[in-house]
Write a structure and sequence with these properties.
Blueprint (H helix, E strand, L loop, with lengths): L4 H8 L33 E2 L6 E4 L2 E4 L1 E3 L2 E8 L23 E2 L19 H6 L12 E6 L8 E7 L18 H7 L2 E5 L4 H5 L16 H16 L5 E11 L1 H9 L11 E5 L9 H14 L15 H19 L36 E6 L17 H12 L3 H11 L5 H9 L3 H10 L6 E6 L18 H4 L7 H4 L3 H20 L19 E5 L4 E4 L3 H4 L4
Parallel strand pairs: 3-6, 8-9, 8-10, 10-11, 11-12, 12-13, 13-14
Antiparallel strand pairs: 1-4, 2-3, 4-5, 5-7, 7-9, 14-15
Helix pairs in contact: 7-8, 9-10, 9-11, 10-11
Amino acid sequence: MRMNRRNFVAKAGLGAATLGITPALSLSSCTVPEKSRDPENDGQVLFIGDDIALAQTNYGKVKGYMMNSVYSFLGIPYAADASGKNRFMPPQEPKPWKEVRPAVYPGNSAPQDIYDRKPENYYSFVDHWNYDEVSEDCLRLNIWTPGLTDGGKRPVLVWLHGGGFSKGNGLEQDGYHGESFSKYGNVVFCSINHRLGPIGFSDFSAIGGEKYKHSGNVGMLDVLAALKWINQNIENFGGDPGNVTVMGQSGGGAKVCVVAAMPEAKGLVHKAVALSGSDVKGVDRTYSQELGRYILQEANLTPSQIDQLQELPWKEYLVLANRAAKRMEQERGGPGMRRGGFGPVADGLHLPEGQFYADASLASPNVPMLLCTTFHEWAPGRTEPELENITLEGVIDKLRSAYGDKAAEIVSAYDKTFPNRKPIEIWSLIVSNREAVIRTANAKLKQNAPVYMAWFGWSSPLFNHRMRSFHCLDISFWFLNTDRMVTHTGGGARPRNLAKKMAGALLNFMHKGDPNGADLPNWPQYTLEKGETMVLNDECKVEYDPDREARQKLS
C-alpha cells in the first residue's frame, strides 16, 4: 500500500530570550512592503561570484550563494546516483570531483507519483508543491548557514520531509525553507531527499540472498548516509556535528521516530522533533518479505533473475510494485498501513523488531524528544462550506463507518470535553485524534531522555476560517516562515507573533534538549500520569492531557 501525506493522516489516527541568542532577523523580512524599505539600507541582497559561498567537503568544493546574509547550498550529493546497479542497494559514496561544483539548485526528487497540481485544485493553491526533475539520482541535501569555517559550532537541524514514505522532497513546500530560521537563530539548517516507496522499501531479503538483505530499508539508510555526511562535513559549514537535531512532519515525523530507534544513528543525532506524524513499530518482516515475492511474481521473474528489476525504468517499477501490493492485499488481506505497505522494515538489523524504545539499554539513540500535532489535522469542511452547518447527529452518521455503534458515544464524549466547539470541529478533533502521538510519547518514556508534548491550535483565517489548524500549518511557525508560506497563514503580525515564540522554544530545544527559556510559559516535561501538553495558540498555555477522557472512548 502506498503511503502519502493524506492517507497517512487519515488512517494513522494522527492528531492533533533564547539562551542568550540575539535575534538577527526581523520576522517580516521575507516580504517587506516597498513603502517600509529604508532607502539608506536598501542594498543588494543576493551575492554569487568566484569567491563567494565556497565550502570544502570530503568529496570536493561546492559553491553556493549568499541571500539575505545567509549562505545557501542546494543539491549537494551525499551519496551516489541510486539507479541501475545501485537500486535496492545501500547508498554508495559519491564520486569525488576536482572542479568547484555549483550548489545552487535543489536536487532531483525521488521517484514517486507526484501530487495533483492542476490549476483547478485548491490544494495546488494552498500548498503549491515545489517539484522539478524526478530521478533516482536524488540523494542530495540542502544547507543554509550564517557562517563558514568560522568555528561557529552552531546547532544543526536536519529536516525530514513529509509525504508518508512515498512522496515529497526536502523543499516541497515554501514552509520548509531554511533561510529565516538559520539567520534568526544562528543555526545550520539542512534538508534532504532520499529514496521513497517501492524504490526505497522493497524487501527482497528472503529471495535475493546476501546481496539484497538491506533492500527493505534503503530509504532509511539514505537518511543515515546523509547524517553521516553531515557529521563529517558540517563543521566546514559552521555547524557542530556534536549537536544535531533531526526534525520532520507527517511522514517525516514518523521518519524521526524511526531514526531515533536505529542503532546506527547513535552519535549522529542528539535531539528529535516529530510533528503530526509518529511511529512505534516498523513494517513486519514476514509481510515485507512476502510482498517482495509478490513483486517478483508480478514481474514474471525467478529469484535468479531478480537483478533484472534493477534494469527497469523507475516508472515501470513503481507501477509493477504497486500493482503487486494491491494484488497481495486483495488475496491475503492487508495488515493496515501502519504495519504494511512500503515503509521501514523491522528487520532486526537496522530497525528493532517489536516496539521502539522498549529497552533503554539498547544501542539506539536515547535522545530528548519533542512531539507536536495540530487540533484539526484533517478538517472535513476545508473545501466544503456546506459541512459547516452539520449537526452532531450528522457527525455521528459520518463516523459510523469507522466506529460503528460506538460513534454516538465517541461524539458525545468529545462534545462534553470540548463544549464550545461546533459539530464540524468535534468531527475534526475525532478524526485528528491524538492516539498515535500519545502512544509514541508513552513508549519513549521507557527511555531516560525527556519528552515534551505540544498541541497546535492556531486557526488559519483562510477559506472563511474553514482550514482551522490543519495538517502542515505549524511547520512555517517553527521555522519563521509565516510570511513566506502565506497560503497557509495569511501572513502578517498575528501568525508572526506566535512563530517567534515557537521558534525560540525550538532553538532552546536544539541547544539543550529543553524548550524552556523563550517567550512561552513554563513547559513541563510530559509524564504518563499528567500528560503535560503545551497548547500553542495566540495565547499559549499548558494543559494536562486535555482530551484524555474523550480519547479513551476511541479504543
